Please model this.
Amino acid sequence: MTNPLLPVFQPAPMVFDKGEGAWLTTAEGERYLDFGAGIAVNSLGYSHPHLVAALETQARKFWHLSNVYRIPDGERLAERLTAACFADVAFFANSGAEANECAIKIARRYQNASGRPERWRIITFNGAFHGRTLATMAAGGNPKYLDGFGPAVGGFDACPLEDINAVRARITLQTAAIMIEPIQGESGVRPVSHDFLRQLRALCDEFGLLLIYDEIQCGVGRTGYLFAHQEAGVAPDIMSLAKGLGGGFPVGACLATRAAAFGMVAGSHGSTFGGNPLAMAVGNAVLDIVDDEAFLTEVRRKGERLRAALEQIASFLPDLILEVRGRGLMLGIRTAREPREIVEALRAHAQVLTIAAGDNVVRIVPPLTVSDEEIDLFADRVRHALEQISKRAA
Model:
């Protein structure tokens, strides 16, 4: 039978029946240790009782209300998110791409409402990934994703990372904002230096631009800070979130200062499903756990433990593992082989799940609730599988 799904994915062959914590189990009973977490989405693992309870409780009330009515859980989640960072207001969407679309619109609208309608272009960075809509693909600038979809949406000017002179040279009278991921995920888990973020903040202040952080993958506790930029102490004007915010339930958010968002008025943006009661109930449940300094301290500690284990493996296999990258529980190993080959070998021979990324990097993004024992087991399995790959290549 021909598969009726649009053939844009290449899924692995196994079919999972259930999940618990950091583990997935197939219908045949095979267990896999998941250090991909749905591409950094399942921040609290599978079947977390607090999330399940929140979802079940809300589901028994109602699933959906239009935004023409107040949704108290959405107001509460907005209050909690803004209280925890630089922002004053929040807009809820269904995905990271939608959150980034909102961020782009806020930046353009800010300049227009400030009497500068000519300022609509946004500086982005080589290697960025901001989503799969036409605008967010153009913002990322990856030819692989843009190919075949006609002329790219205009308004984005790409610069190399860590080159502040190149950024300064890109600023024109049409520039509205600068948009950056504090850690680039898709292109190979590449952290941006704190100094570069400070330099970008200074440029934005100098030229009257807005600074946008895309924390869709690196936010919500992933680095051991509620938001990755908080480690650097450099606040943006706008920030997008998704992935871990819903712990597996689709939810995105765009946060902004009131000053940056003053041009957004009734009717200037919207979403049918964004901020629906189910998503808001789960988002609040995630924050109940993640927005806690003791929890975040544990994420940093576990990230150090995992990184040390990966660096030890790299020391044994220097011809195969070239570098360990990342922060907290958002790590990557750059290999001398095609990353999908490594990911498939780990899945097939070690029953470990990871995610391929750019620059020959294998992404390692386990649930934030992963245990020390699971980290050690993961390291043992990875080392054994990579040793076999290295021997076969010798």
Remarks:
- The longest strand covers residues 321-327.
